[in-house]
Amino acid sequence: MSNASSHELTKRWAVAAVGVPAVLGLLYAGGWILAVPVAFFAALGARELGRLAARDGFRLLEGVAPPAAAVFVLLAAARPDFHRFAPPALAVLAVVSLGCGAVALVRRPPDARPLEAVAGTVFAALYAGLALAFVPLLHSLPTGHDWVPPGGDPWAGLGVVALPLASTWIGDAAAFFAGRRWGRRKIFPSVSPGKSWVGSGAGLL
After folding, report:
1. β-pair partners for 186
2. Inter-axis angle of helices 31-55 and 3-29, to 10 degrees?
3. What confidence score (pLDDT) does residue 5 get?
4. Taking the model in full, what pTM does it have?
5. Is-contact 49 21, C-beta < 8 A?
6. Degrees (nearest 5) of the Cα angle 121, 124, 130?
7. Helices 31-55 and 114-125, axial angle in degrees (round to 10)
8. Strand partners, 196
9. Closest by alpha carbon to 118, among 133, 103, 128?
10. Residue 110, exposed/middle/buried by CB under 10 A (0-12, 13-18, 19+)?
11. What is the DSSP letter of 148?
């Protein structure tokens, strides 16, 4: 194994050793103890999308996407049922979209691509925030739909969220090891040089 592969493997084990127990603890606790850190990571994800866009000379509207992404998660924690969550989430989306449009009209001249800035900002908020909002929504499914007896079972919510997380982690690990060992043909070398057809097949299996 090359030095680069060994370093990548060490990082993965370090993340797993710290991250897996922390995630399981948060999922067991549920409620706001789970929602607040998830909202924080949603904000970080939206910020990272803005940073990646800026590397290509595309600037999102500053200070909008990270807090909006966090609000989606916190709304899901406050109203942990999709039918109760959807109306205020749509209201937040409308406010963010219209607010971004107004800000872009004032602060972005036509040659600064204001419409693209608005679309990118709203996308960042939705991509990071709405996706992670499903963590508290999924966590509440067992109690909200009477899957468990009255009083709840903290392991039920943990299991519902842990299933897709475990599937993702196991698939990623399988893709990594199989791709390093047998992967030769790359899928998109210009986009992700490490991704191979063999690794992708192993991850899917």
Report:
1. 196
2. 140
3. 60
4. 0.79
5. no
6. 125
7. 150
8. 186
9. 103
10. exposed
11. S
The two structure tokens encoding residue 170: 């196991």
What is the mean pLDDT of the segment spanning 126-135?
A: 94
| Strand positions, DSSP E, 24-113 | none
Task: Give me the pLDDT at residue 126, please.
Answer: 95
Residue type, 2: S
Task: Map residue 146 onto helix, strand or coil.
Answer: coil
Query: Tokens representing 110?
Result: 């036509």
3-state DSSP assignment of residue 185: coil
Q: What is the pLDDT of residues 56-98, one digit of tens each?
A: 788 888 889 999 999 999 999 999 888 999 999 999 999 999 9
Q: Which residue has the higher pLDDT, 188 or 66?
A: 66
Tell me which residue has tokens 């797993």.
16
- CA distance readout (Å), 148 to 144, 157, 164, 194: 9, 10, 20, 43
